[in-house]
Amino acid sequence: MSINNSTGSSTGNGISPQSVVVAGCGAMGYPMALQLLDHGHTVSGFDVRPTATLLPENSSASPFPFLTTLDDLSAEQILWVVVRDEAEITALCFDEQAVFRQAQYPSTVVISSTVSPRYIHRLNELLPTNVTLIDAPMSGAPYAAKAGTLTFMVGGSTDAIGAIRPCLDAMGNHVHHVGPVGAGMLIKVMNNYVAAASVVAVRRSLDRAAANGVDSDLLLTIMSQSSGATWYGDHANEIEWAQQHYDPANTIGILEKDVQCSLGTDLVTTDAFDQALLLALKQLPHWPKR
Q1: SS3 label, residue 219
Q2: 192 near 258, Cβ under 8 Å?
Q3: Residue 26, exposed/middle/buried by CB under 10 A (0-12, 13-18, 19+)?
Q4: Rounded (10°) angle between helices 183-211 and 272-282
Q5: Max Cα–Cα distance, the chain, nearest Å
Q6: Strand 108-111 and strand 132-135: pairing?
Q7: pLDDT tens digit sequence for 174-213
Q8: Can you tell me the distance from the alpha carbon of 144 to that of 123, in angstroms, rounded to the nearest whole number?
Q9: Predicted model pTM
Q10: Following DSSP, what letter does each residue of 46-92 receive, concatenated?
């Protein structure tokens, strides 16, 4: 299984711009769409939430159009999915929006939402046979999406991934082709399992240090230079959700969902540590405590 890394402009090699519909324009999807637009691609957005609620502060309008329905998509378009979970993907593809029950539909669908690998395989079986599915989950949080420095873990055929590579390069600076369909999601949920454990460990350490009069920034600095270094701890002052308490609707809630997704893989038996991690995420208070 090969892993390829590269950076580069999406249209710098004479590659024609692509037409992309970004479904799910929240904290990750909206800045990803902006990066695609900035790199010369044709972008449309779609979200079930009102457009005004998705725009950044001090923005009165989106630089790309938002579609009100997904009834008239063409085979030449790429449907790039960044919705929250499996239920929303199912609604998008087959139920409420029913993209793939229309007379015409995109020939390529890319899933950047974090879901279970089992769901990706099931989705691949349910999609029309003339639709190419690629799983391309990403890591880096909204600040990396805004900077175009996401890391993508991509599953699919070499030809299919090559066709969307300009889009991946527009949004990320690390693109890993890790294997066939489903492989990208497997890597992603394992990555997020480790990330979730580190969030719990860092937050508990910060609370315990503060209770003993140790400055949080001092602890974070020393951990970043020591064996306690983690992505979450190293970027705590950049991550928008770093101080969140647990809520099913926020990013900590999504992280708990991602741990559940990591347990939805073959040959995985849930044990006491898994249950303790899920419980610890659900018990996270706001940090710093008020």
Answers
A1: helix
A2: yes
A3: middle
A4: 60
A5: 65
A6: parallel
A7: 999 999 999 999 999 999 999 999 999 999 999 999 999 9
A8: 28
A9: 0.88
A10: E-SS-GGGTSPTT--S-SS-B-S--SS--TTSEEEE--SSHHHHHHH
